[in-house]
Amino acid sequence: MLTVLTSGKGAPGVTTVALSFALAWPTPVLLVEADPAGGTIRHGYGQGADLLGRSVLGWHVAARRVGAREAIWANAVRLQGECWLVPGVDAPAQAASIDCAALAATLTGIGVDVLVDAGRIPGPAGIGPLVAVADKIVVVLRSTLASVHAAQAAANHIADLAGSASVGAIGVEADSLVSVVVGAGRPYPLSDVRAAMTHAAPLAGEVAWDPATAAALSDGGPAPRRFDATALMRSASRLAGVLASRGKEQGSPVKTAGSQPGSRRDERAEDVDHRLRHRATPSQEPATVGGAR
Ligand SMILES: Nc1ncnc2c1ncn2[C@@H]1O[C@H](COP(=O)(O)OP(=O)(O)OP(=O)(O)O)[C@@H](O)[C@H]1O
Ligand SMILES: [Mg+2]
To answer: Could you tell me the CA-to-CA distances from 119 to 45, 59, 191, 213, 242 in Å, in that order?
Structure first.
């Protein structure tokens, strides 16, 4: 299952939400920073860790040599357990060289659930191909009037993208375009945001307002004690569970491949894990990031 996270104007918290979802995702998951404005997790949550060039750009370069799928795992770093990250490009200029259609095609068959941080929409680079293959698109917003308005516009843009010839007439199925509000009640209550988003991208739920935990995720600040029990992580875990299970109900390339017990999906996940473990060389040890916790 592939889930794209995006936003309209402002910085409502897409990267923070994407990272919290990844850390709380109930099954093996790969987070890909495809924000054309550049990745931030390495310098934030990763506290500037040297990832030896592993990134979406590294994927682009390596794909020609070793194949697109292999190149994804060669550019992934482990965040924890069965949760990996392909960091974003260092600078917006590098994003122009990333073939979004090739990235989308690669990620659909990767064998684990995928979360994509696509940055703001409409953005400088077309995320159309990623939208086209997404099982779910999540528009992140705050509870301000400006943010709700921007989210409505972003959702309408996504619906247009989905209907446009350039990405094929994929349509956006009911339930696949949803929204998530960061910090309801600041100032508008959840019920108002829900009502405002009903026709654009129905609200899937709320990520709690929690500046300390958010700072650990977005800036690499000190992690609150009992990190998983913080308001932000508990709300993220709830939503991640809902989104992951909805994907399974709806079906996806990954799900179809792995719907049987002892399925290919499990085998693939194990295979990925196995390959990552056994690929690790001393020079690749910094591949685990998350020093904030
Ligand atoms: N749940 C939250 N509670 C409090 N602050 C939050 C929360 N989520 C995010 N923030 C804060 O909001 C700011 C923006 O977050 P983030 O970088 O994730 O936004 P973004 O939408 O990815 O921005 P951009 O479009 O620039 O990539 C950060 O300072 C982050 O700590
Ligand atoms: Mg971001």
So the answer is: 17, 19, 26, 21, 22
Q: Which structural domains are found in the chain, ordered by start?
A: 2-264 (3.40.50.300)
Low-confidence ranges of the chain (pLDDT < 70): 124-125, 163-174, 247-293
Q: Characterize 50-64 residue by residue with b for buried, 16 or more Cβ atoms within 10 angstroms of its Cβ, and e for exposed.
A: ebeebbbbbbbebbe
As a whole number of angstroms, the distance between CA 164 and CA 156 comes to 12
Q: How many Cβ atoms sit within 10 Å of the Cβ of residue 271?
A: 13
Q: Is residue 119 lining ligand 1, measured as CB closer than 6 Å?
A: yes
User: Residue 291's pLDDT is what?
Assistant: 55
What is the chain's length?
A: 293
What Cα–Cα distance (Å) separates residue 217 from each residue in 52, 106, 284? Answer: 21, 27, 23
pLDDT of residue 285: 43
Nearest ligand 1 atom to alpha carbon 44: 17
The residue whose CA is least distant from atom 1 of ligand 1 is 209
The pLDDT tens digits for 128-143 are 899 889 999 999 999 9
| Closest ligand 1 atom number to CA of residue 208 | 1
In the chain, where does DSSP find H-type helix?
A: 14-24, 56-66, 68-74, 92-95, 100-108, 128-133, 145-163, 190-197, 211-219, 231-250, 253-257, 264-279
pLDDT digits (tens, 9 = 90+) for 100-114: 999 999 999 899 999
Ligand 2 ion: Cβ-proximal residues, 5 Å cutoff:
14-15
pLDDT at position 169 is 40
Q: Compute φ and ψ for 2, nearest 5 degrees.
A: -120, 125
Which residue is closest in CA terms to ligand 1's atom 14? 13
